[in-house]
Structure formats: structure tokens, C-alpha cells
Design brief:
With about 425 residues, this protein is α/β, with parallel strands linked by helices. It is about 25% helix and about 25% strand. The chain has a nine-stranded mixed beta sheet, sandwiched between helices. The protein has a five-stranded antiparallel beta sheet with strand order 8-5-12-9-10, sandwiched between helices.
């Protein structure tokens, strides 16, 4: 098996929530010689130096300082997001009724809700605990079947196969235990997993996730099935490329934002100060004047990488016939006349040139004119920084399902293109 595909499988299994994804990225960066910078302290940077920052336990930006002046070579930025649609627990809603202990959930982003039912679910996220030194934040991953959201039997819900709509408040409560003496099994399970008392737990940010591991599929292993491919697959491709970037001419930047699925308007989202501040601080550390920093931005380019829609042969009517990317047909340039994607003819040509130099095929996607279009971190990033950018992604099926499918060849293709970009 290709080493990048094997590591993608591992990365997906290590990342049940954005908190774990961030730690998995951090570990790979440190193993490759990247040093963590503290946002509250002054920075000293050197050409060829490898660094990263981490904000709010999730968002990470890594960069390699280029050998050429920033005013000439600019920044080569690639960006993705590490959050995925999910069901977020409401920890204080735990209750027992007729011997069944349940906890309510809040829908995070836009998941295909029906795919979350009748599955063995784990719990992952972050827990704040009280210690003698103060409040401490700990990652949590209860990697065992701790919850389930069962459907009603078809005998009691005859509309289940006819477009039934689940009530998010009542139908999606996760069952944790049975028995009238269950107490609060959620707190007990968290405390046991962290090996501490229930009383030391102050706050929790927890998400349900499907326990099935990422796996290859198809008679030729050309498909990869997993949760959270949108957008951890693009995150992994960018990460794999920058980990192998040494002494680039331009300054290579890999930005992994959080909260894209809910609009990016948080301190660790794309619509925040995070990337702009980092680029400015790089310029300041390299002794650039304000004018030189602005010139550096004008010499820069950004690739926004978010998964794309592959042509689904069972739903041909959902696609624009001339813009229907095929699975394992190469990375997709995403185009929209209303600039829900940031691609232009010029920025698309820059990506096409990269593909041709890397010997990789490429495809294009446009949504049907009678359907709404999604968006990415690309438009926000490009508008905020004034940097030319292109939106791309690898084709996939069942986007926002609890189990999504993409192509293994496409992943290898994109890593080659991104390596070419950073070089």
C-alpha cells in the first residue's frame, strides 16, 4: 500500500474530532522538525526554518521560511479545515426515563442525519478539569461503543422510507445506558477514561462519532471509505506536502482552520485574524516594512482545498453534464459565477500549470444553475488578505454522510501537485 494512503487511513482514525485532528497534525509536524511558536512571545525566524502555531487547541498553521525575499517570492499558501459535520453533546441534558438514560445533541454543521442512526458511536472532544495549578484542558477519545441513536421500527414509523424528517430535539437523543440506577453515565465514563474524579470535571466539549475505521474498498482498492473525509483528506494532502518541503524559494504556508462547517467566524476560523496576523508577524520577524509586507501579499498565491462532488451514476440529474468530475480522475478546480468558490480564469490556470508540471490530470466542477452552491475557506481568505486564490478539491461521494467515499488515486495525485506548488 502507498505510504501516503496508509498514513491517511491512520490520520482519519486518529481524528474523531477537530481536537484530535489538531494533535495528530502537531505530532507529525514536530516529528518532521517543525518548532512550535508561542503567539504571546516575540519570534526569531531564519531562512529554511520550519515553524507552526496552534490556536484554541484546534487550528494550526505551519510554515517554512523561503530563501528569497518575501517581496519577490511571496507566500505559497494552502488552506483547509479540520472540522466536519457532527452531533455535539449537550452534557447537562442527561436524564433517565423509564429506565433509559439519554443525552441530547446539537447538530453541528450540515450532516446527513439519517446516516448517524443505528450505529455504534464513540465520544471525542475536550474536557476542562480542575487541578491544583488551575484549569487544565485535556483531549478525550472514548473509542468504544458508548452510545447509539436508534430508529423507531418501520412498523411504528411507516414514513421512514418516504422522506421522513428527524426532529433534532427529540429524535436524536443518544442512549447511554439502561437501568433506573444508571445515574449520570456520561460523567462517570469521562472521569473513568481520564482517571480522575467526577468532581474535577468543570466543562466539556464532546462530539459523537462513528467507530468504524477508515478502510479501502473496491475490487482494486481504488476507493477509500471513512468518516470526516470532508475535510480531513484535504488536510492530510496539504500536510503530507509541507512535511517534505525543504528550503523553498517562497515561504510555504499550510493553514488548517476550524469551524468552516458553521461559517468560520470564530477566533480559529478562516474569517478571523489568524492567518493575516501570522503572515504579518512573519514579515515583522524578517524586518520587513509595512509597505514591503503589503508587496509580499501581492506576490502571494493561495490554494483553498476542500473536497468536491464526484459524478454519481445513480443521480445523473444532479450534475452539470460538462462539469461532472469522475472519481480517480484527478483534482478538481471548483468554479462558481457568484464566487462561492474563489477560482478565476487566471488562478485556475496557475493550478492547471502545477498539475501539468507534476504530470497529474485535473478536472473542473460547476454546480447546476438551478441548484445552490456550497462554499469554502477560499473566498474569505482571498478577500481578507487580498491574495489571488483558487478553490480545488478531490472528488467524493456522500459528502457530509457519517461514512464518505473518495478515490485513492486522487489523493496521491493531489499530494504530487502540492509538492510541486511548495517547490
Amino acid at each position: 500500500m502507498n505510504i501516503n494512503i496508509q498514513d491517511l487511513l491512520t490520520f482519519l482514525d486518529e481524528s474523531p474530532s477537530a481536537f484530535q485532528a489538531s494533535l495528530a497534525i502537531k505530532e507529525r509536524l514536530e516529528a518532521a522538525g517543525f518548532g512550535e511558536l508561542d503567539e504571546t512571545k516575540s519570534w526569531k525566524l531564519s531562512p529554511g526554518g520550519k515553524y507552526f502555531i496552534r490556536r484554541a487547541d484546534t487550528a494550526i498553521i505551519a510554515f517554512v521560511v523561503g530563501s528569497m525575499p518575501l517581496t519577490d517570492a511571496g507566500f505559497q499558501i494552502s488552506a483547509s479545515h479540520i472540522d466536519s459535520p457532527a452531533l455535539k453533546l449537550k452534557p447537562e441534558t442527561v436524564k433517565t426515563e423509564k429506565g433509559v438514560t439519554r443525552v441530547g445533541v446539537e447538530v453541528y454543521g450540515g450532516p446527513i442525519i439519517s446516516t448517524w442512526l443505528d450505529r455504534e458511536l464513540g465520544i471525542a472532544g475536550r474536557v476542562s478539569i480542575q487541578t491544583a495549578e488551575g484549569i487544565k484542558s485535556l483531549p478525550l477519545n472514548i473509542n468504544c461503543p458508548i452510545a447509539i441513536i436508534p430508529n423507531a421500527a418501520i412498523h411504528m414509523n411507516r414514513e421512514i422510507n418516504s422522506g421522513f424528517q428527524y426532529n433534532k430535539q427529540t429524535h436524536l437523543q443518544a442512549i447511554l445506558a439502561t437501568g433506573s440506577d444508571a445515574g449520570n453515565p456520561l460523567l462517570a465514563a469521562v472521569a473513568t477514561h481520564l482517571n480522575m474524579s467526577v468532581e474535577s470535571i468543570r466543562e466539556m466539549e464532546l462530539y459523537l462519532y462513528d467507530l468504524a475505521n477508515a478502510s479501502l474498498a473496491g475490487t482494486d482498492d481504488s476507493l477509500l471509505i471513512s468518516g470526516r473525509l470532508d475535510n480531513l483528506a484535504m488536510t492530510h494532502a496539504i500536510l503530507a506536502a509541507i512535511l517534505e518541503t525543504d528550503n523553498p524559494q517562497g515561504t510555504s504556508v499550510a493553514a488548517f482552520f476550524d469551524h468552516e462547517e458553521i461559517g468560520s467566524t470564530t477566533m480559529q476560523g478562516a474569517d478571523s485574524s489568524l492567518l493575516g496576523e501570522l503572515l504579518e508577524r512573519i514579515g515583522m520577524a524578517l524586518k520587513l516594512s509595512r509597505e514591503e509586507q503589503i508587496r509580499a501579499l501581492r506576490s502571494s498565491f493561495a490554494i483553498s482545498a476542500d473536497m468536491a462532488h464526484a459524478f454519481h451514476p445513480a443521480y445523473p440529474e444532479k450534475y452539470e453534464p460538462n462539469y461532472s468530475p469522475m472519481m480517480n480522475g484527478g483534482p478538481v478546480i471548483k468554479i462558481n459565477g457568484n464566487y462561492r468558490y474563489t477560482s478565476t480564469s487566471q488562478s485556475s490556470l496557475r493550478f492547471i500549470d502545477l498539475c501539468e508540471k507534476a504530470g497529474v490530470p485535473y478536472q473542473k466542477f460547476m454546480v447546476r444553475s438551478d441548484m445552490p452552491c456550497g462554499s469554502t475557506v477560499g473566498p474569505t481568505m482571498s478577500a481578507t488578505l487580498g491574495i489571488e486564490a483558487v478553490d480545488i478539491g478531490n472528488p467524493m461521494w456522500a459528502m457530509h454522510s457519517v461514512r464518505e467515499t473518495c478515490g485513492t488515486c486522487d489523493h496521491k495525485y493531489l499530494i504530487k501537485v502540492l509538492k510541486q506548488y511548495y517547490r
